[in-house]
Each structure stands twice: as C-alpha cells, then as structure tokens.
Amino acid sequence: MSDLPKALLLLLLFTSPALSAAALQPNIVVLLADDLGYGELSCQGKTDIPTPNIDAIAASGVRFTQGYVTAPNCSPSRAGMLTGRIPMRFGYEFNPIGARNEDPGAGMPRQQRTIAEMLHDRGYTTGLIGKWHLGGSADYHPHRHGFDEFFGFTHEGHYFVPPPWRGVTTMLRRRTLPGGGQGRWNGRSLIYTTHMGNDEPAYDANNPIVRGGQPVEEAEYLTDAFTREAVDFIDRHSDKPFFLYLAYNAVHSPLQGADAYMKRFSHIEDIHRRIFAAMLGNLDDSVGDVLRKIHEEKIERQTLVFFLSDNGGPTRELTSSNLPLRGEKGSMYEGGLRVPFMVSWPGTIPAGQLYHKPVVSVDIFATAAAVSGASLPRNIDGVNLLPYIQGKNDSTPHEEFFWRQGPRTALRCGDWKLVNMHRDQQQPRWELYNIAEDLEEKNDRAAQETEKLTEMIERWRKFNEEMAEPIF
Fold first, then answer.
1. DSSP-based three-state secondary structure for 312
2. Band of the pLDDT at 24, cuts 50, 70, 90?
3. pTM, entire model
4. Same domain membership, residue 372 and residue 416
5. Domain count, the chain
6. Buried (b) or exposed (e) across 231-246, using 16+ Cβ within 10 A?
7. Phi, psi (deg, nearest 5) at residue 43
8. Are 316 and 32 in contact (CB under 8 A)?
C-alpha cells in the first residue's frame, strides 16, 4: 500500500500530458528590492544591519559577484528584467516620475512580451505584488502585461503607511527647515532634512494601492502588506506552477521605519541610518516569511528563487552603501549598475557557490523560458544561467553589455569598461577602466590605452546604432 501513491503518480504523469508538464515546471519567484546598495547585505560584507534571510538564499544557491541590471534607476531596469531585453532596444530609456507616470506614452509598450506573458502562456498562474513603475495609465496596467493578479501601486514610490504616519519614524526631504535655515530638524517621530536640497516627492498623489484594478485602503506597513499578499498567493497556488514577482518598494524613499524595527536598531546613533536599518531589517524579515511559506508548502525543491535589487543605492539619500564600488543610483559607474544578485533552487543548483563572471538581470527571462519549456525569442539579450552555475558551461555568459540613458552611457567588453557621464551628448568625455584590476574605477586609462579606447568607442557606436529612439 505504501507504494501505491507513487505508482499512481507515475501513471498519471505518463497518461496525463497536462499533469506531466505541470509536474516538471518549477515555480519561479523573483524578489526585487528597491534601491538596495551593492554593499548592504551581510553576505556582501556589511555587518551593521544583519540580513540572515536574504543571506539564506545565497547560502542555499549561488551569489553572483558581478550581477548587473539594465539601467541605473527603477523603471528601465524593470523593463529590461521583465522583457529579457536591453530596454533601449525598444526606446524605454528614461525613468518616469511623478505625474509623468500617467502620460499616455510613458509606459512599457504593449508589444513587448514580458516574462509573465510567456509563463502565463505555458500554464503558469502569474502574480505581481508591489511596485510596477512601468506606466500608470490603463494601457500599461499589469493585467495587460500578463499578470493574472496584481496588488500594489503603479508609480515610482509610495508612503509605507497612510497619513498621519502613525507607528513609524519618518524622515522627509525639505528645502527649508521650520523657522528657516538648513540642516536637520528633529521631532518626536517626524524629521526634516535639507541635505538633498529638495522636497520629498509627492509619491502618493493619484497613486493608490490597488487590488487588480480597484483602489483599496491599506493600513498595514507596506512591506508587511506585500509579504502578506505574497504568502497568500503562494498558499492559493502551491498546487500548480506559479510565477510570483514580488517587487518591494523597500528600501526606496520615503524613509519610514516601523517602531518595532526602530527599537531593534536603537543602538545606531545616526537617526538617518537607523531608519534605513529599520527598513532593511523589515525587508529581510519579510523575505524570511516568504521563504518559510515555500518551505511549509513543501515546494522548495520545485521553486526557483531569484533575489536582486533594481539598481544601486542612492547613498546621500538613504545612507546606502555600494562599496567597494564607485558611484550610486543614476550613475554609469559600477555602483549604479552592479547589484546584489542571487538565485536558489535546492536540489538543482549546488548550494553555497560564488559565481564571478558577469550576469545580467535579462538572464532571468531566458532562464525562466528554459525551465518552463517556453521557446526563447530570438531578440532576447539574456541567456539561460543554469548551465553556467551547474558547471556545464565554462564560458562567460556575457562578453559585452551596453547601457545608455541620454548622454550617460557605458559599455563593458570583457574586463574593460567605457563610461561617459558628461551631459553634453555632442562632446562625450570618455573614461576607460579595467574592472578586473580597478574595481573602484579610480584609474582612468583613456589617455594611456588609446588603441583600446578607440576600439571600445567603435564597439559602442555599433551597439548604439542598434538602439531605438526614446519613446518618452
């Protein structure tokens, strides 16, 4: 009798094509942090804010030491990851903020096929929980890009609790402090700072939390609310293949730390850093809740989990560290483009590995296509990572990669990286770095390596010609 369930399962697998395909298709979970610096996680070397749950993903799988995204800020980076393409190829170059989120042309074009559409058409149930930021008007709604379920918001940011912001400590950017002057004004639970020289964006203006297409009132701290919804999604769909894209808005501004986490990190003297620590600690606990739910459902060995950030951390705004990298969010230096990036699939991916060759977020699409049995479109820039991290392919996943955002641009070819951060498109000031020898990008070799510089500029021009004009 003890062998009967196994025998029945084998019989069903061979006699029911639909069940057989479902049994072979792993669940795919993408956990995306927002504005998390390269150097912030414990597994990346920083220890003042413990992140044991995120670290556990790396410990049970592979951590990529050269993991890149397709843009140095939120929206084009997400467009690249979800389509498997360099977003400039279809004109998605810039980062809509504020009211621009609702402009008719400011969104990811419908003709761009997303990972959600691909997996939906392979029989997956697909869900997006969290931040969308790929168009705030009806034309670009997640339901129109392949997601069966959506709970979250569509603009670039959102307050973590509704006003009047009870139960949190809030730090807001201001141009002037109460009574005039500059610096920092400390209230009981509300702090103003002028160090950035501008006001906090109106994140919540016409940007409600929605379930599906309808606004909802959400009182729970947003990181916790997104985790609650993710755990529920897994609970409801653990009996079939699912794709969960859990796009937290932590640790993106506004800076709001929940009371319990502010108490946990009360030993951090700088209130700015303490709020950031509270947000990151909360995010880490939330990742732990999602991982525990996967464990409770006994689907660990059939669930492929990615964790990464959408871009580098904005250091001055959040105190986030991108060390040892140069630069921050918005820059074409490594600190804007190289992010914490890891993957776990117990039983399929060997545990505890470091992978040192360059990988890019577009590879998530290609990997998902391979494990789901989907055909990979020819225009995809990503590659299936499994053969590389399983030791079946010793070559380099990406010999070169291209980035562009207006005049700011970069190209990596092997160990060499070409960078222009000058704002005049007609007069670029090319910088050249050998990343293998100079990870911090301190030693500009453009004047010494003139042949290499010329070669890199020519290769950049060829890439640039392949890109489309910006659509907004």
1. coil
2. confident
3. 0.94
4. no
5. 2
6. bebbeebbeebbbbbb
7. -70, -15
8. no
DSSP summary character for residue 470: P
Q: What is the distance in angstroms between the CA of the first residue and the CA of the last residue of the chain?
A: 65
Length of the chain in terms of residues written: 472
Pairing label, strands 341-344, 62-64: antiparallel
74 is an active site residue: yes
CB 90 within 8 A of CB 117: no
Encode burial over 190-211: b for 16+ CB neighbours within 10 A, e otherwise. Answer: ebbbbeeeeebeebbeebebbe
133 is a catalytic site residue? yes
Catalytic residue (one of 43, 120, 133, 158): 133
* 255-304 tens-digit pLDDT: 999 999 999 999 999 999 999 999 999 999 999 999 999 999 999 999 99
Domain of residue 111 covers: 27-160+210-393
Q: SS3 letters for 173-219?
A: ECCCCCCCCCCEEECCCEEEECCCCCCCCCCCCCCCCEECCEECCCC
Residues 97 and 133: beta-carbon distance below 8 Å: no
pLDDT of residue 23: 56
Residues 409 and 311 in one domain: no
**DSSP at 438:** -
**What CATH number is given to the structural domain containing 451?**
3.30.1120.10
Give a yes or no: residue 9 inside a domain: no
Q: Which of 43, 74, 155, 237 is catalytic?
A: 74
Residue 425 pLDDT class (50, 70, 90 cuts):
confident
Does residue 12 lie in a domain region? Answer: no
140-189 pLDDT, tens digit each? 999 999 999 999 999 999 999 999 999 999 999 999 999 999 999 999 99
Instruction: State whether 234 and 334 are in the same domain.
Output: yes
Cβ(342)–Cβ(309) below 8 Å: no
| Average pLDDT taken over every residue of the chain | 94
Specify whether 302 is located in the same domain as 407. Answer: no
At residue 355, the 3 state secondary structure works out as strand
